[in-house]
Amino acid sequence: MTSTDALDEIAHCSFCGQPDTKVEKLVAGPGVYICNECVALAASIIDGTIGSPARPRTPVWESMTGDEMLSHIPRVAAHIEQAEADLRSWVQELRRRGVTWTRIGEALGITRQSAWERFSGEE
Ligand SMILES: [Zn+2]
User: Fold this and answer.
1) What digits encode the pLDDT tens for the residues 18-40?
2) CB of 16 within 8 A of CB of 35?
3) Which of 7, 17, 49, 89 is deepest in the core (most CB within 10 A)?
């Protein structure tokens, strides 16, 4: 990956981790994204074309080495950062519309002060 690619990237698929620059389409949800390839895979699983466990896949830590787990956790962290950035942009738009920190805090189940400290960018 060149640094130019990294600059052009806006978001990553929350399922496979590919950046928007590497997939045809990326659909946005609240703090998450899914690429056209993962949508197609999910559709195949729903259609029954591809088998799937009844429950969502969870990491099987017992079968992973420490190094494998270490290489996985940056992807988990990237999802948190992506979701945080999405939440921040929603809050910025609410502030632009004149919505108070009190109401934003109430919506998030935190105090006005906590909302301000987390999202205002001021100290
Ligand atoms: Zn994907």
Assistant:
1) 888 999 999 988 878 899 999 99
2) yes
3) 17
Interior angle at CA 76, CA 51 and CA 55, nearest 5: 25
Q: Find the 23 Cα to ligand 1 centroid distance in Å.
A: 8
3-class secondary-structure state, position 34: strand
Residues 9-20: tens digit of each pLDDT: 778 888 888 888
Distance (Å) from CA 9 to ligand 1 centroid: 14
CA of 62 to the centre of ligand 1 (A): 25
CA distances to 81, 103, 122 from 43, rounded to whole Å, are: 27, 39, 44
Say how many Å lie between the CA of residue 98 and the centre of ligand 1.
36
